[in-house]
Amino acid sequence: MTDAAGRSLKFDELPDRIVLAEGRAAYATALLQDNPLDNIVAYGQDLEKNAGAFRDKLFELQPEAKDMPIIGMIQKGDVTVENLLAQDPDVVIMTLDQKKAVEESGFIADMDAAGITYAFIDFRQKPLENTTVSMQLLGDLLGESKRAEDYNEFYTSKVKDITDRVAAIDERPGTLVWTAAGYNECCAVAGDVHLGTLVTAAGGHNLGPEVLGPETKQITPEKLIELNPEKLIVTGGEWARDPNKTDMFRHVELGYQSSPELAEETCDGPLQFPGLDLLDAPKNGNYFAVYHQFYDNPFNVFALAAFAKWIHPQEFADIKPNQDFVDFHKKWMPFDYSGVFFYDPANPEES
Fold first, then answer.
1. Which backbone phi and psi does 295 adopt, to 5 degrees?
2. What pTM value is reported for the model?
3. Where in the numbering of this chain does the Fe/B12 periplasmic-binding domain appear (predicted)?
């Protein structure tokens, strides 16, 4: 098998004790098997912290998984070799972001010394390059190689359709992705990674790298106003915990627990920061919201499609993001669709 770091791995037999160092890798395992947490023996705390509504979907399918160990967040240094060995893992799945962290901390050397086998996936740093590699790796590890191949064929075809159409368009509107808008202080912006790379592929001019460099960092509200992007995309999620108490933050409530009414009610939340009423994009119908977790899972191709529609509405008028995602769940996912993952306040019926 080959992982997202280009490393070759060999196994005498399929592993049946897998640790997901990033718990949100379960988005990928849910694509591959009817019981997404089969063969998973522990997962990272991020699944609970950042994608609680999705985790609830998994627990509805596999109630016994509620008792599965949570190992913490390896990139923050709160996981020990002893924590991992206690799970008796056949393989630990980490992300390329975690790879950088464990190399810099020396933790990966400790894992090597303990004889722990590990592999890397990536849906974040280079999503359009590494999603298919990561899906094939996970499919091979779970004995679902054909399922992974089928998804990769679907994924590649969908990406090609969009990028081929974009290639015939000359205009590149200035676009900014404000991540976790309203949940944290203004403003974390996508640079030349994850959703930022999708803006470029969707035919937008991603303004992020011009003010940030390659990584996701903060800019001030004043800088956002100065940039005044033609297209402004914010990411939203299930951070209110209780979707009926969305006033805890000023984010757009999106995800499996949301509804069209909640998305509409909360869509202006991020714009309540002082001074942001000066932005032109919301006034011109060029303000949009997308599910935050698309930045780090194999569903990123649906964010790509939505971005293409929002950035070039005439050329991609045929795309209906939410309906496409509903249809996707019917064919590919082991649980029913619920919620809202894309929201266009100017055209809510087409979201």
1. -70, -10
2. 0.95
3. 17-319
* Cβ proximity of 200 and 238 under 8 Å: no
Q: Decide if 175 contacts 198 (C-beta within 8 A).
A: no
Token pair belonging to 208: 């992020």
What are the per-10-residue average pLDDT scores of the chain (351 residues)?
A: 96 96 98 97 95 96 96 92 97 97 95 98 97 98 98 98 98 97 90 95 95 74 95 92 62 95 95 95 98 97 98 96 96 97 91 68
DSSP string across 65-90: GGGS-B---GGGT---HHHHHTT--S
CB-CB contact of 208 with 240 (8 Å) = no
pLDDT value of position 343: 97
C-beta of residue 341 within 8 angstroms of C-beta of residue 290: yes
Contact 95, 74 (CB under 8 A): no
Nearest Cα to Cα of residue 249 among 231, 261, 234, 237:
237
Measured in residues, the chain has a length of: 351
What topology does CATH give the domain 18-155? Rossmann fold (3.40.50)
Angle between helix 127-141 and helix 145-167 axes, rounded to 10 deg = 170
CA distance to 31, 290, 337, per residue, from 328 (Å): 10, 17, 9
Give the per-residue pLDDT at 338. 96
Q: Provide the 8-state DSSP code for 343.
A: E
CB neighbour list of residue 38: distance below 8 Å, 6 or more residues apart? 62, 142
42 vs 17: CA distance, rounded Å: 9
Per DSSP (E only), the strands in 222-325 are: 231-236, 287-291
Distance CA 87, CA 320 (A): 43
Domain ranges of the chain: 18-155, 170-350
Tell me how far apart the alpha carbons of residues 312 and 202 are, in angstroms, rounded to a whole number.
8
Which one-letter DSSP state was computed for residue 180?
T
pLDDT at 339: 96
Both tokens of 170, joined, read 């000359």
The residue among 179, 181, 234, 227 whose CA lies nearest residue 205 is: 227
